[in-house]
Amino acid sequence: MLSGRRYRLELTAEQAQMCQEFGDICRAVWNTALEQRREYRRRGAWMNYVPQAAQLAEAKREHPWLKVAPSHVLQQTLRDLDRACREHGTFRVRWRSKARWPVSFRFPAGNLIKVERLSRKWARAKFPKLGWVRFRWSRPLGGEVRSATVARRGGQWFVSFLVEDGHRTPEKHTMPDTAVGIDRGVAVAAVTSDGTFHDRKFIAPGEAARYRRLQHKLARQEKGSANRSKTIAAMGRIMWRVTDRRADFCAYTANRVTTLNALVVLEDLRTRKMAASASGTLERPGSKVRQKAGLNRAILDKGWYRLEVALRSAARYTGSWILLVDPAYTSQRCNRCGHVDAKSRKSQAVFACTACGHRDHADVNAAKNHRDAGLAFPACGDLGTSRSAKQEPVSRATGRNP
């Protein structure tokens, strides 16, 4: 099974400059190849990886600066672009902006990468044209290196190894008759049907205050100035810490949930569409834009989609099934009698059925509805030995069985 291992690099000034240059070249190749693909599509023709890779080899003879980066790194950039265009469409793939895009590039050939441990806390890796680089040994690799991605985040450089860890997905969960529903919200990140509330603060009050001061400072600074760049870097360091805490929370929660449950049921939420702006257009301006912006920030802050991805990743090691169900009326339906009434949802936290009088926490009631909907799915059966082997839920993300 393939899994990732990320470590913090300790680069020399020369190595950091080389990494920056590699990233800039990959960005130029991406943007040039994307523009070529779009121009071909405008004329009704197609362009794919093979001819672009051949043209890249020819361009190296005319532009020596392309030879600075390893060839297979640039070829991997074209492969990533080809995959993005096939999955999302040529005109939906984004440009890699010099100001907004975090510098990154990938070494796809694992046989050209050597890793050696130096001490209890340090190790080093050898990459083509970059040489030996030191990194902090925070965890064992745990397998054979297949590829490596170098990226810069918050002023620091990191390397992510893709390794073959030798694990296989179990055919059956250790507790096959267990199931849980999860309700994702903005007040609490995730509530399970057993009444457990999973939540934490991702940004400290002091960090939030400092970030607001930096935003005010940024608004007064001239674009392109050195001080503005320093302010943006300081804001980025705060946000990267917040992102790391959110990722840690999602991974920890996913591990706990999948370890204890063979079936995990989530509502099928389209997070990107839900977090879209309500500003509209000049001809048709939106309504309640500020309220919608606050809701969007709350949705993105809780990491709804990141939790779903973490659950799918953790389920590979436990054999759990991740099932998405229709979220319609799950917050208004009484889990005890099945009556649906919007008036039953008294507030964000209180649910009181107008038919039978059943009272429960609103998020717990919704999570129970998700669980019951998952148990009623034809392929799930009783989650035991009678489950049909020919009918299994299909993953929305991959199109295959979870």
TrEMBL record:
Coiled-coil regions, chain positions: none
Family: In the C-terminal section; belongs to the transposase 35 family.
Keyword line: DNA recombination, DNA-binding, Metal-binding, Transposition, Zinc
Transmembrane segments: none
Location of the Transposase putative helix-turn-helix domain: 1-43
Organism whose genome encodes this protein: Streptomyces himastatinicus ATCC 53653
Domain Cas12f1-like TNB: 304-369
The protein's name in its UniProt record: Transposase, OrfB
Record-level Gene Ontology MF annotations: DNA binding; metal ion binding
Pfam families (UniProt xref): Cas12f1-like_TNB, HTH_OrfB_IS605, OrfB_IS605
Organism lineage string: Bacteria, Bacillati, Actinomycetota, Actinomycetes, Kitasatosporales
InterPro entries for this protein: Cas12f1-like_TNB, Transposase, Transposase_put_HTH
